[in-house]
Write a structure and sequence with these properties.
Blueprint: E1 3-8, E2 15-19, E3 22-28, H1 33-42, H2 44-53, E4 64-67, E5 70-77, E6 84-86, E7 89-93, H3 98-128, E8 134-138, E9 145-147, E10 152-156, H4 164-176, H5 185-194, H6 198-208
Parallel strand pairs: 1-3, 5-7, 8-10
Antiparallel strand pairs: 2-3, 4-5, 6-7, 9-10
Length: 218
């Protein structure tokens, strides 16, 4: 049984969360260890069932990387010192180890995500007549996107591994929250008005979201 216990200063009660990486038990910062142990013991059957149900995510081969729904070759070259994407191929120095490659890969994805989201959001902003206060690219475990009450929209960098139409849906979803800060019928009607293939995108994320991993999982 493997559960990651995370203490939060503002959390008032203990709760389990299932993420692509496993199970987390998020607890108040001062909760006694004996109480934590009791919670884990009382829920051991539930935990084992959830762990068994988690889909297996195979580690990506060292010679390929994902980008916008495609498996892209990674070529190691001599006499270069940077990571780049050229002609549908990733390139990196032949001296780099896995840690260097993954760090550069994530930096590349973050830059591309911000560029893509910023450009795509212009269409939705013109249609809806609203504008985000700030666009942030994150690396969340359990959320694909979020919209704060102040108008800051966060998009998960891992979506750059998915087909672009899936990322388009998440962008539309979060921009619709600038009008409806809930998931009411009015909200979903607004999403459908700017992105008609909601069911296709959500089904894809449900079936394949766990495979969108920047770092190796085993």
């Amino acid at each position: 049984m493997t559960v990651k216990v995370i203490r939060h200063k503002r959390r008032k009660y203990a709760a389990f969360f299932v993420t692509p990486e496993g199970i987390e038990l998020r607890i108040p910062a001062r909760l006694p260890n004996r109480t934590v142990e009791a919670i884990l013991h009382d829920h051991k059957d539930w935990i084992n069932d959830r762990l068994a149900a988690l889909p297996h995510v195979p580690a990506l081969p060292s010679d390929t990387l994902l980008f916008q729904g495609k498996t892209v070759p990674l070529v190691r070259r001599k006499n270069i010192d940077t990571f780049a994407f050229e002609e549908d191929t990733f390139i990196c120095p032949d001296t780099w180890d896995e840690t260097h490659v993954r760090a550069a890969y994530e930096r590349f994805l973050r830059v591309e995500a911000l560029r893509y989201v910023t450009a795509r959001s212009l269409l939705y902003e013109r249609t809806l007549g609203v504008r985000a206060k700030k666009i942030r690219i994150g690396h969340q475990k359990a959320r694909w996107g979020s919209c704060s009450s102040t108008g800051t929209i966060s998009i998960n960098v891992r979506l750059m591994l998915a087909p672009s139409e899936v990322l388009d849906y998440v962008i539309a979803h979060e921009w619709a929250h600038l009008i409806h800060f809930d998931h009411s019928k009015a909200f979903w009607s607004t999403v459908a008005s700017i992105y008609p293939n909601v069911k296709t995108a959500t089904s894809w994320l449900k079936a394949n979201g766990h495979t969108l991993q920047i770092k190796k999982t085993n």
